[in-house]
């Protein structure tokens, strides 16, 4: 779906970039991509020597092609992007683009610590085939990453990006939440398409949807644990680690929410809470990759320094899935 977007009520900072914006080439910002739907933030398989295993990656892609996802998120947190070189990050996106059906969206993580590096990687991700880029908040100097710094950062990235930008707030990993006021201001930029919010604060998600409703701004839930709640306050989809494992079930939850079948949605949502917590905040990417192996996907080991699960952790992970009827 394409809609015209209007850059209303601009702040002085955003207005200061208007002339540069107009001079930019290949701009897609005059139109709006419809982000609604489910996206797995795909994992990156590695060989025993910790090289990217492109053959296993393609095997996973073939299986995901049979699930009604809206698209794939590549080089998100679950793709272990901080542990990949820039060249690897770009090559993974190229590999996914070659395999991904043309009607599926490819959202590529391009966030770096500096604005300059983010701008450069964003351009490379677009050239590699990304339809949209997902840009995480820079966080190493988190004490100085206030609203002013973050607005400037995302505005410069959006000004120069050949493809639309989705903001990414993941405080569990960065220790930094993108301030609500900054989100509202950035929503006015014609090349900022939406937000992936992984914080889990439903009142915040609802307020963002409310305060940006005149901007065609789209909010994606960043976790399966609060997907139904996010839909109830206006989110349009989800980027959920658990979709790597229970993709069809999460697409079913999406369908139930969109069609207003809330009682059925509630029952399914409740059964997803513990498995989701296990592969995210409790045990993390190593647990996600282990669960992928149980469900017929290529997960495997993480790149060092991430460590494999202990036996006790593996048993806990299995209980979290089996007690909810998934194993």
UniProtKB/TrEMBL annotation:
Instruction: Output one GO BP term.
Output: glyoxylate catabolic process
- Return the EC number: 4.1.3.16
User: Can you tell me which residues form the catalytic site?
Assistant: 168 (proton donor/acceptor), 196 (schiff-base intermediate with substrate)
Keyword tags: Lyase, Schiff base
Catalytic activity of the protein: (4R)-4-hydroxy-2-oxoglutarate = glyoxylate + pyruvate; (4S)-4-hydroxy-2-oxoglutarate = glyoxylate + pyruvate
Recorded hits in CDD domains, A to Z, give: DHDPS-like
Which parts of the chain are coiled coil? none
Ribonucleoprotein as UniProt keyword:
no
Tell me the enzyme class. Answer: lyase
Transmembrane spans = none
Q: Which GO terms describe its cellular component?
A: mitochondrion
InterPro entries in UniProt: Aldolase_TIM, DapA-like, Schiff_base-form_aldolases_AS
- Which is an annotated GO molecular function term of this record? 4-hydroxy-tetrahydrodipicolinate synthase activity
Position of the signal peptide: none
Residues recorded as binding pyruvate, renumbered to this chain, are 239
- State the oligomer form and interacting partners: Homotetramer.
Q: Which family does it belong to?
A: Belongs to the DapA family.
Relate the protein's function as given in its record.
Catalyzes the final step in the metabolic pathway of hydroxyproline.
Protein name listed in UniProt:
4-hydroxy-2-oxoglutarate aldolase, mitochondrial
Can you name the source organism? Zoarces viviparus
């Amino acid at each position: 779906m394409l809609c015209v977007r209007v850059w209303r009520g601009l702040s002085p900072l955003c207005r200061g970039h208007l002339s540069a914006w107009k001079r930019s080439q290949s701009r897609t910002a005059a139109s709006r991509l419809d982000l609604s739907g489910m996206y797995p933030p795909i994992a990156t398989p590695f060989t025993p020597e910790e090289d990217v295993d492109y053959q296993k990656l393609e095997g996973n892609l073939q299986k995901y092609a049979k699930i009604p996802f809206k698209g794939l998120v590549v080089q998100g947190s679950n793709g272990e992007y901080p542990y990949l070189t820039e060249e690897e990050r770009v090559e993974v996106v190229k590999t996914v683009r070659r395999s991904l059906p043309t009607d599926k969206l490819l959202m590529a993580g391009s966030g770096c610590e500096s604005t300059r590096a983010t701008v450069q990687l964003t351009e490379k991700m677009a050239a590699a085939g990304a339809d949209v880029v997902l840009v995480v908040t820079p966080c190493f100097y988190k004490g100085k990453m206030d609203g002013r710094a973050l607005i400037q950062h995302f505005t410069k990235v959006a000004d120069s990006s050949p493809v639309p930008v989705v903001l990414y707030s993941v405080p569990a990993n960065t220790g930094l939440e993108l301030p609500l006021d900054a989100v509202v201001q950035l929503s006015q930029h014609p090349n900022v398409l939406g937000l992936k919010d992984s914080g889990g604060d439903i009142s915040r998600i609802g307020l963002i949807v409310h305060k940006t409703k005149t901007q065609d701004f789209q909010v994606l839930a960043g976790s399966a644990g609060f997907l139904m709640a996010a839909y109830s306050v206006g989110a349009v989809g989800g980027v959920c680690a658990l979709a790597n494992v229970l993709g069809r079930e999460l697409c079913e939850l999406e369908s139930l929410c969109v069609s207003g079948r809330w009682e059925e949605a509630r029952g399914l949502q409740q059964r997803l809470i513990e498995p989701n917590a296990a592969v995210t905040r409790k045990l993390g990417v190593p647990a996600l990759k282990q669960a992928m192996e149980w469900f017929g996907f290529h997960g495997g080991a993480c790149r060092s320094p991430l460590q494999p699960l202990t036996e006790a952790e593996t048993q806990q992970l299995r209980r979290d899935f089996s007690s909810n009827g998934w194993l």
